[in-house]
Amino acid sequence: MKDSVTRFTPSERWLHNVVMFSVLTLLLTGVGMIYFNLKGDQGATRQSLVRTHQYVSVIFLVAPLLLVMMGNKGVWKENLRLLTTWGWKDLEWLMKKPVSALFGNIHLPPADKFNPGQKTWATLAVAGSKALAVTGLIMWSVPSPILAIMIHTAVGVGLGLALLGHVFMAVGNKDTRPSITSIIHGKVDAKWAAHHHPLWMERQSRRRVDERPEFAVVHLHAEYVTGKS
Ligand code: HEM
């Protein structure tokens, strides 16, 4: 990719993609079970959906823990800080975003590695996953726990709906679609990143120059030659 920047390391991509495939399987098998319940059919197909749901739930619970333990602690710490730190600028971003999406031409506060919309999704995804894990484990070990079943189904449906928004941003919306390569090979176009995540790109460029000071000279030279400076 021409003039690209690394957005996600291999461990970040493994974590995202293992969660992505397990959640999609859990949602599909969950919807399948609801369908057979409504039909009053407890036959072999429903039983195999239940077993798949249970096996994949173990992957969903255990694999992220192993991947976090095996990955770079510095990267996890920084992502956690960036995803959980909120300020007034984030609130301003969230209030202005719907207006800018509808009418354009509205200046949004500059975003870091994750914009406030992404932070909101990450918070919902983690909270929802925890609720699903707790209620799911109760359902696995206690016969007919009505409250746990109700919470598990409601949170599953809610998370599935929120996921539709996340998937739309990743593949449907043309402004954010270029980010899809970040979960495939880790890199995104540098110009796209500078436009959508300027605070993050600024930090990345400073890091690059701190690690390899010659980049500053090469960068300035390139700007001089292309007349961009
Ligand atoms: C078909 C399914 C999915 C697709 C296509 C997808 C796509 C993506 C992409 C492209 C990014 C990177 C965005 C960027 O570089 O700025 C991302 C980030 C992320 N994804 Fe997914 N994802 C999917 C499913 C999931 C699921 C099931 C979860 C969790 C339950 C999840 C949680 C996250 C989180 C927390 C982030 C970081 C915050 C953000 O960028 O929104 N994703 N996803």
What keyword list fits this structure?
229 residues; mainly alpha; two-stranded antiparallel ribbon; 75% helix; 3% strand; elongated; disordered C terminus; binds protoporphyrin IX containing FE
Please state how the strands of the largest beta sheet are arranged side by side: 1-2
**Rg result:** 21 Å
The helix tally amounts to 9
Beta content comes to under 5%
What small ligands are held by the chains? Answer: protoporphyrin IX containing FE
Helix and strand sequence: EHHHHHHEHHH
**What is the averaged pLDDT score?**
92
Report the structural category.
mainly alpha
Helix content: over 70%
Largest sheet: 2 strands, antiparallel
Q: What's the number of extended β-strand segments?
A: 2
Distance between the termini: 23 Å
| Shape field | elongated
Spans of at least 5 consecutive residues whose pLDDT stays below 50 are 225-229
Task: Explain what this protein looks like in three dimensions.
With 229 residues, this protein is an all-alpha fold. The chain has a domain at 4-125 and 184-196. It is 75% helix and 3% strand. It is built from 9 helices and 2 strands; from the N terminus they run βααααααβααα. Strands 1-2 form a two-stranded antiparallel sheet. The longest helix is centred in the N-terminal third of the chain and has 30 residues, at 10-39. The protein is elongated. The model is unreliable at 225-229 (pLDDT under 50). Protoporphyrin IX containing FE binds next to α1, α5 and α6.
